């Protein structure tokens, strides 16, 4: 419409990446959203869409849940940011710990990227080693060290260097520390590579459910156990990045889901009930020994102006109460299950080579490949056609992000999911 064309032009003038930086999930069909409620967003032209992006994960209870809105409204008039822990942030941390006992200590951050970066700092300070290892296709945020092999398909096993960055002082290129890229869901090869680099690795970081570039596949419990054993054998800190799946996979988190306890975890997205809030934490000896108040323990600097701000804490705590007292998680999971089942049925009927991955409220569609367990499988599919189909749904009133896994919320009804399936059916045809 004229309204969205006008915004497109203005975005290109003011934002260096134009619309692709702002509406990156939907280029070349930017949808400029002005309001949202439940499972729906409304754009500048007054058009409704079933939302499967859900703020890229945080909105487990859908948009504008009344309990969350009320908590934020109350908090906003009382106090916005004292820039220090509050009774509410301490209580929220205690409640999170009660669900996730492996969080012997935790520290809030604003974003998932800060949480993963800080967890790696703790691992480096605790081990005195620099190198880290990550898994193909896993996403850990915008920090330089992690931007290796997330959306590219470089060789695994060989340490990779992220892009050189400019050193501010001398403007000379500075190479970042090497990152070892490991195969996902391949217990034997991953364990062998961890052993090979064992004495140099500070941390191995992994996603319990790989990001969409990695297929949106849950880790196999035996794979997670093998990674746990290999890291323990070499004194390497194992970090679970649960930023996307924290609370979604169950309130007890991925360690309960996989039966494997890491040394540190990073949680985010749903933690703030839609507002910016994340955390990292885990073993008390690691956290206290690097961030603690004891003399000599302060090796890692971690701070932020807006960290544990009361608005985010209020939204997160209100959201957790709903998750604890209603069957919200079950509803979100059921919507995800209905979507996966419906897609499988459609694909069967169409005779297309394709597969559907995901778990609970996380869903991913892959065309042109019959099985997906990791990034290599994703790349062997027809990425162009998959993106075309998902973007094609936009015309039919469904926002399905082509580069982020689709997520359902407690507010997605059977009718909403059926509307999504109808759009996918049309796009496939
Ligand atoms: N880790 C994972 C697994 C994520 O999904 C994301 C965000 N997509 C991040 C880290 C980074 O979090 P943020 O965008 O809040 O910095």
From TrEMBL:
- Cofactor entry: pyridoxal 5'-phosphate
The organism of origin for this protein: Kribbella sancticallisti
SUPFAM superfamilies with a match to the protein in the record? PLP-dependent transferases
Family per similarity comment: Belongs to the class-III pyridoxal-phosphate-dependent aminotransferase family.
> Which Pfam family, just one, is annotated for this protein?
Aminotran_3
Tell me which UniProt keywords the record has, alphabetically. Pyridoxal phosphate
Q: What is this protein called?
A: Glutamate-1-semialdehyde 2,1-aminomutase
Q: Which domain of life is it from?
A: Bacteria
Q: Which InterPro entries match?
A: Aminotrans_3, Aminotrans_3_PPA_site, PyrdxlP-dep_Trfase, PyrdxlP-dep_Trfase_major, PyrdxlP-dep_Trfase_small
């Amino acid at each position: 419409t004229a309204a969205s064309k006008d915004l497109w032009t203005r975005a290109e003038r003011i934002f260096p990446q134009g619309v692709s930086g702002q509406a990156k999930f939907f280029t070349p069909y930017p949808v400029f959203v002005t309001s949202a409620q439940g499972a729906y967003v409304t754009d500048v032209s007054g058009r409704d869409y079933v939302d499967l992006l859900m703020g890229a994960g945080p909105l487990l209870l859908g948009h504008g849940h009344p309990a969350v809105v009320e908590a934020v409204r109350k908090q906003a008039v009382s106090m916005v940011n004292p820039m220090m822990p509050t009774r509410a942030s301490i209580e929220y941390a205690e409640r999170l710990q009660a669900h996730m006992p492996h969080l012997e200590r935790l520290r809030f951050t604003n974003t998932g990227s800060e949480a993963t970066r800080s967890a790696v700092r703790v691992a480096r300070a605790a081990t005195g080693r620099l190198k880290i290892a990550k898994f193909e296709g896993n996403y850990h945020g915008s920090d330089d060290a992690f931007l290796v092999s997330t959306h590219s398909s470089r060789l695994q096993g060989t340490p990779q260097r992220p892009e050189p960055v400019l050193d501010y002082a001398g403007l000379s290129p500075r190479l970042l520390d090497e990152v070892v890229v490991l195969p996902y869901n391949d217990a034997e090869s991953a364990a062998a590579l961890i052993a090979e680099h064992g004495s140099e690795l500070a941390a191995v970081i992994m996603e319990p459910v790989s990001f969409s570039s990695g297929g949106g596949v849950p880790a196999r419990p035996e794979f997670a156990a093998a990674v746990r054993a290999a890291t323990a054998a070499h004194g390497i800190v194992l970090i679970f990045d649960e930023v996307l799946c924290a609370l979604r996979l169950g309130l007890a988190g991925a360690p309960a889901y996989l039966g494997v306890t890491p040394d540190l975890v990073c949680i985010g997205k749903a933690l703030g009930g839609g507002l910016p809030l994340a955390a990292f934490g885990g073993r008390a000896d690691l956290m206290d020994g690097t961030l603690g108040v004891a003399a000599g323990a302060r090796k890692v600097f971690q701070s932020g102006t807006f960290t544990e701000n009361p608005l985010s804490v209020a939204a997160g705590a209100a959201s957790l109460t709903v998750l604890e007292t209603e069957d919200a998680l079950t509803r979100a999971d059921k919507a995800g299950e209905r979507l996966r089942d419906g897609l499988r049925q459609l694909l069967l009927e169409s005779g297309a080579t394709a597969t559907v991955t995901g778990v609970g409220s996380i869903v991913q569609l892959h065309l042109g490949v019959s099985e997906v367990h990791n990034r290599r499988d994703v790349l062997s599919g027809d990425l162009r056609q998959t993106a075309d189909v998902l973007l094609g749904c936009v015309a039919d009133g469904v926002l399905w992000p082509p580069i982020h896994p689709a997520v359902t919320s407690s507010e997605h009804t059977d009718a909403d999911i059926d509307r999504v399936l109808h759009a996918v059916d049309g796009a496939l045809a």
